[in-house]
Design goal:
One of its GO terms (molecular function) is metalloendopeptidase activity. By secondary structure, the chain is of the alpha+beta class. It folds into three domains: 154 residues, ATPase, nucleotide binding domain (Nucleotidyltransferase, domain 5, 2-Layer Sandwich); 157 residues, Nucleotidyltransferase, domain 5 (2-Layer Sandwich), CATH 3.30.420; 196 residues, Transferase(Phosphotransferase) domain 1 (Transferase(Phosphotransferase), domain 1, Orthogonal Bundle), CATH 1.10.510.10. It contains 16 helices and 22 strands. The strands form six sheets. Strands 3-2-1-4-5 form a five-stranded mixed sheet, sandwiched between helices. Helix 14 packs across helix 16. The longest helix has 27 residues. The two termini are 41 Å apart. Threonylcarbamoyladenylate (TXA) binds next to helix 3, helix 4 and helix 5.
């Protein structure tokens, strides 16, 4: 055995044939990579696999040489303690080649094998290099885009793309305008000379989708809008969406640490937006060095070392690869500390900061005043548009929902230009701080009622529901009707699409998984409440929606 743990990492999920050596004691990470560059178009899975076949042995050999050169243990011992490899997600043909190489190496060196989830590695490297205890993680990579937070032994997906990964979306646009792969860096360069044009902006709670904005961007380029302007505006909107959902995740979990992962994280504008957002809300932001952001075996070796330390190795027979491997499928064996959600605000607090707004609370007067803040990270034109649209919608939908029999606060005043709303004060605490099966079932009924009226809430989370809390206000709870109120309709809209109703339920479901200690009975309750009042087709579609967010190349 060497003095400190040393791990050989191998990566090859799509384009980067990469091997690395991580030395836990010195924290030294040696990385050797060989990138696949398609001659035309995007990544071809077969060609990429051929690249892996040709390039993996050489990068592994270089890494092993380095391991031997820097090894101070006896020569008869292997230069590393384990071989860690990317098991997925990724392109099947590539993964299989890397898996075969890793198994052979683990046998040849007589060291254990560690099977690493590539997406968890993208986020763990940021936790490792930042030293943050319990950050929210934004993974912005080619084939994925996830918002993740640790809870009860897993990384929970708080939000994700509903169609393609963020890098792939950008790459498809650059292919359309005839630029070579990868497109991300070219968009970044072109954007330097651009000015803002209007493009779609789609967030649903902490989920988001790129299909609308990408078709509009292609259309704009076809219509003769200067490509620089399209690139600039794509960055403003796409990264604005990712920053907004990151802020919402910080707000929901009460965390004040954010880390970035994935190849798109190399983009300076994205990093700037995230840093500005964190600064504005008093949170800390960390982005690892570029060599750890793009696909690389260093992150595989670093997480491999943590897993190895925890005894989380894998038998050769069980080490098959999984091209759909989701981050929330991984039992997190290497973390023991369970961060508590920050406690709900005290009864006396008079000002609350949400993800979007500052809310001033006048409990005695029975009023709250909500003011959407200008976001410094956002382009001023977009910021202005979103603030005004959302304030108007929130006013309208809050009242319409009540007419449909869904408890909401009475709107007493609205000023769209100032992005200001005044409501009746309702409930005693947020559902997040008083989660019960009965209340969650109520939310299911409320959502069903809204949907039946053609309204989508848009951001139903455990913080956007107010409940009466027995310990905080006895008198209140002696009322016969303990009510569950929906608030914050700013992302709502009218629609008759079953898909949109299912998405609404999905958003609530994700917030339960992200904030509850024992989410299963609650997830059951929201479905049963919904079934009492609503349309079964929506619940069926929910199952479909849950199957998405899989690896899509
Ligand atoms: C499953 C795995 O194979 C996949 N990996 C992956 O997509 O490679 P990654 O290195 O994380 O990200 C590559 C993407 O990152 C984009 N990219 C690179 N530099 C960029 C930049 N400066 N601005 C925007 N995008 C950039 C590229 O255009 C490309 O779409 C993933 O993590 O989803
Ligand atoms: N009518 C109300 N009665 C009582 N409390 C309220 C009311 N409206 C808002 N709050 C409190 O203020 C918090 C933030 O409000 P709201 O969700 O509307 O703001 P936001 O910035 O849009 O938040 P987010 O986007 O993070 O959900 C709520 O979680 C709730 O605790
Ligand atoms: Fe990646």
């Amino acid at each position: 055995m060497t003095a400190s743990v040393r791990i050989l990492g191998i990566e090859g999920t799509a384009w980067a044939a990469s091997a690395a050596v991580f030395d836990a004691e010195s924290d030294d990470v040696f990385i050797e990579s060989d990138a696949y560059q398609p001659e035309s178009g995007g990544i071809h899975p077969r060609e990429a696999a051929e690249h892996m076949h040709d390039a993996v042995p050489a990068v592994v050999e270089r890494a092993l040489e380095y391991a031997r050169e820097t090894d101070d243990g006896p020569e008869t011992e292997p230069p590393v303690d384990a071989v860690a490899f990317s098991r997925g997600p990724g392109l099947g043909p590539c993964l299989r080649i890397v898996g075969t190489a890793a198994r052979a190496l683990s046998q040849a060196l007589s060291v254990p094998l560690v099977g690493v989830n590539h997406m968890v590695a993208h986020l763990e490297i940021g936790r490792h290099t930042s030293g943050f205890e319990a950050p929210v993680c934004l993974n912005a990579s080619g084939a994925n885009a996830h918002l993740l937070a640790y809870r009860n032994g897993r990384y929970r997906v708080l939000g994700e793309t509903m169609d393609t990964g963020v890098g792939n979306a950008i790459d498809k646009f650059t292919r359309h305008v005839g630029w070579s792969h990868p497109g991300g860096p070219k968009v970044e360069r072109a954007a330097e000379d651009g000015k803002y044009v209007d493009l779609p902006y789609v967030v649903k709670g902490m989920d988001f989708s790129f299909s609308g904005i990408m078709s509009a961007a292609k259309q704009a380029a076809d219509d003769g809008v200067p490509v620089a302007d399209v690139c600039y505006s794509l960055q403003e909107n796409i990264f604005g969406m990712l920053t907004e959902v990151s802020e919402r995740a910080l707000s929901l979990t009460g965390s004040d640490e954010l880390v970035l992962g994935g190849g798109v994280g190399q983009n300076a504008r994205l990093r700037e937006m995230l840093a500005t957002m964190c600064e504005q809300r008093g949170a800390q932001f960390h982005a690892p060095q570029p060599r750890f952001l793009r696909d690389n075996a260093g992150m595989i070796a670093v997480l491999g070392a943590k897993m190895y330390d925890a005894g989380d190795t894998i038998a050769i027979e069980e080490s098959r690869v999984d091209s759909d491997f989701r981050p929330d499928q991984v039992p997190v064996t290497w973390r023991t500390n369970e961060p508590a959600l920050t406690a709900g605000r005290g009864v006396d607090e008079t000002r609350v900061r949400g993800a979007e707004a500052l809310v001033d609370i006048d409990r005695d007067g029975g009023r709250v005043t909500k003011r959407r803040e200008s976001k410094r990270y956002r382009h001023p034109t977009l910021d202005d548009r979103l603030q005004r649209e959302r304030t108007t919608l929130e006013a309208r939908l809050t009242s319409q929902a009540r007419r449909e029999g869904v408890p909401t606060p009475v709107l007493t005043d609205v000023d769209p230009r100032e992005a200001r709303l005044e409501f009746e004060y309702v409930g005693d605490c947020d559902l997040r701080d008083g989660l019960t099966v009965e209340r969650v079932r109520d939310v299911g009924r409320h959502l069903a009622r809204l949907h039946a009226a053609g309204i989508v809430h848009g951001d139903p989370t455990t913080r956007n529901v107010r409940v009466s809390h027995p310990e905080r206000n006895r008198a209140e709870c002696e009322r016969e009707d303990e009510r569950t109120y929906l608030i914050d309709f700013g992302l709502g809209y009218h629609t008759d699409h079953v898909e949109d109703y299912a998405m609404d339920l999905h958003v609530f479901d994700q917030s339960l998984v992200g904030t509850a200690d024992d989410p299963e009975p609650l997830r059951e309750a929201v479905r049963s409440g919904y079934a009492e009042v609503g349309n079964d087709r929506v619940l069926e579609r929910l199952q479909d929606v849950e199957g998405r967010g899989r690896y899509q190349s």
